[in-house]
Design brief:
352 residues; alpha+beta; four-stranded antiparallel beta sheet; 14 helices; 36% helix; 11% strand; elongated
């Protein structure tokens, strides 16, 4: 049986590749030192309003508590960068809306969950008698820690999982199993060296120390997770980033090895990779819901979408389209939206 399982691990790699995954590794259900780092991070309150990060007790860093009977975790990654794409050019045009590259296409959760289920089914057919559960951000899983322990890369100074052959523009997913598959070696090297580009160039200075992210200052948190007002002192620093932020990845030298995704579902929809802030700001709620159907952008909600765009418009050049778009929302029924619109108009020297 040991020989069968050893051969099975290599067969799983082939199946995973056929299903569109870029890499795969097997580890024990143990997050090692990452558990203490998570506890310290939570104790410092750096998770902000993301209460779910502290929920579920120790299940997030103890996979056997999440799924009793788990003996192995199969960690997999899938590249998501669209192609062709020029994110730096969009960032440089401050009348355009910058949207994080992972969310330009369809929501990755369904696609990856389906592929993981297909992979688990193949494994079960090959060696019956074991249990399998697949996760893609659908449960409290410390996925980067498990990926590092499975040999997929190291945790960079920007807290992202980095891979020497693929950078960091990829999604992670896991299969928890009771099958005692042979283990892969953890990735113990650190290839960041003396580089500090991600720390130095973060727009809001969200990294108090290397490998520590204060989510309360992170633009991804501010535009997606935060439900109330954006901190006024951080708004000018957010630029035209209206859903997520990729800066700490875009400046990472290892991302010169990032690979374009082969998945059609990850390609941009509705021109969201290159749209004017003013145009998006004038979407009705019906348009927003229609054009973000099946997209992770819906997570912020329509009011959050307008809040983020208002901040972007406040940081944009003073032009007629920018000012007129803001004026059209100056009396919006949402207090949250009005607050940010009035702030933006004042940035352009116009009384609300």
């Amino acid at each position: 049986m040991t020989q069968d399982l050893s051969q099975l691990r290599e067969q799983i790699r082939l199946w995973a590749s056929d299903l569109g995954f870029g890499d795969m590794g097997v580890t024990e259900p143990d997050t090692g030192p990452h558990a203490d780092r998570l506890r310290h991070w939570l104790a410092e309150g750096m998770h902000g309003e993301m209460a779910y990060m502290a929920d579920h007790g120790s299940k997030r860093h103890q996979p056997t508590e999440l799924v009793p009977g788990t003996l192995r975790v199969i960690s997999l990654r899938m590249d998501y960068l669209p192609s062709p794409d020029n994110p730096r050019a969009t960032l440089a045009q401050n009348q355009k809306a910058y949207i994080s590259r992972y969310t330009l296409g369809r929501d990755y959760h369904k696609l990856m969950r389906k592929r993981l289920a297909m992979l688990a089914k193949k494994i079960d057919a090959a060696v019956a008698g074991y249990d399998y559960r697949a996760f893609v951000d659908s449960a409290p899983v410390l996925e980067r820690a498990l990926a590092q322990r499975a040999g997929l890369g190291w945790i960079g100074k920007n807290t992202m999982l980095l891979n020497r052959k693929a950078g960091s523009f990829f999604f992670l997913g896991e299969i928890f199993t009771s099958a005692p598959l042979p283990l892969d070696e953890p990735y113990t090297q650190d290839h960041c060296g003396s580089c500090s580009a991600c720390l130095d160039l973060c727009p809001t200075n969200a990294f108090p120390t290397p490998r520590t992210l204060d989510a309360r200052r992170c633009i991804s948190y501010l535009t997606i997770e935060l439900k109330g007002s954006s901190p006024e002192e951080l708004r000018p620093l957010m630029g035209n980033r209206v859903f997520g932020c990729d800066d700490c990845q875009l400046v990472c030298p290892w991302n010169k090895f990032s690979r374009p995704s082969a998945e059609d579902d990850f390609q941009p929809r509705h021109g969201l990779d290159n749209s004017e802030l003013a145009r998006l700001f004038l979407w009705s709620e019906e348009e927003f819901l229609k054009r973000t159907e099946g997209s992770a952008i819906r997570r912020t909600g329509y009011e959050g979408w307008l809040r983020n765009l208002a901040v972007g418009l406040g940081n944009a050049p003073t032009t007629i389209p920018v000012v007129e778009a803001l004026r059209q929302r100056a009396d919006h029924p949402s207090e949250l939206v009005r607050e940010h619109v009035h702030w933006a108009l004042q940035r352009h020297g116009i009384a609300a």
